[in-house]
Amino acid sequence: MRNFFILASFLIFSNLLSQEGKLHKNKWHWNNKTQDSNAGYAQAVKVDNVIYISGVVTSNITPEGITSVYNNLKAVLANYGATFDNVVKENLYTTDIEAMKKYNDVRKKYYNNDFPAATWVQVQRLYMPESKLEVELVAHLPK
Predict the structure, then answer these.
(1) What are the Cα distances from residue 23, in Å, to 46, 51, 98?
(2) For 37-56, what is each residue's pLDDT tens digit?
(3) How is the beta sheet containing 50-58 ordered, strand by strand?
(4) 53 FRET partner, CA 20 to 30 A, in 4, 19, 31, 45?
(5) Residues 94, 107: contact at Cβ < 8 Å?
(6) In whole angstroms, how far apart are CA 7 and each of 2, 14, 119?
(7) In whole angstroms, how large is the CA radius of gyration of the chain?
(8) pLDDT tier, 34 (very low <50, low <70, confident <90, very high otherwise)
(9) CA quadruple 22, 74, 127, 140: dihedral sign
């Protein structure tokens, strides 16, 4: 009898998923677009209450360059009514990790001592050759 209930639950759940059909993605891109078809990406995609933000870049690993990256990320978050308080994961890619460590205080100000899980990786180069830093985020909105 227990196996029957497990199988019935699975079938009901599978049926609900198939009725919903395609995953609803709310996309946002700079200049009021939903995506960039040249490079093939959206700046942000919201699914349910999770926002996935593509990397924002700068060619200067300086306080000004880092501020520019995080101000742009702030603008993407704001588009969904979110702030850095909603950020749960940060991935940072840089061509010079020592410079980024030197100016980490600029980044930390945006989180107000509520830091997300984070991964920092030094890479040889980024998509745009002149870029030196790229930061992507995952944020959760309240349900």
Answers:
(1) 11, 14, 40
(2) 888 899 999 999 999 999 99
(3) 26-28, 44-47, 50-58, 133-140, 87-94, 117-122
(4) 19
(5) no
(6) 9, 10, 40
(7) 19
(8) confident
(9) negative
pTM for the structure as a whole: 0.82
Q: Which DSSP string do the residues of 44-110 spell out, in sequence order? A: EEEETTEEEEEEEEES--SHHHHHHHHHHHHHHHHHTT--GGGEEEEEEEES-HHHHHHTHHHHHHT
Q: What tokens does 68 get?
A: 């520019």
The whole-chain average pLDDT of the chain stands at 89
Query: How many Å apart are CA 77 and CA 81, to the nearest integer?
Result: 6
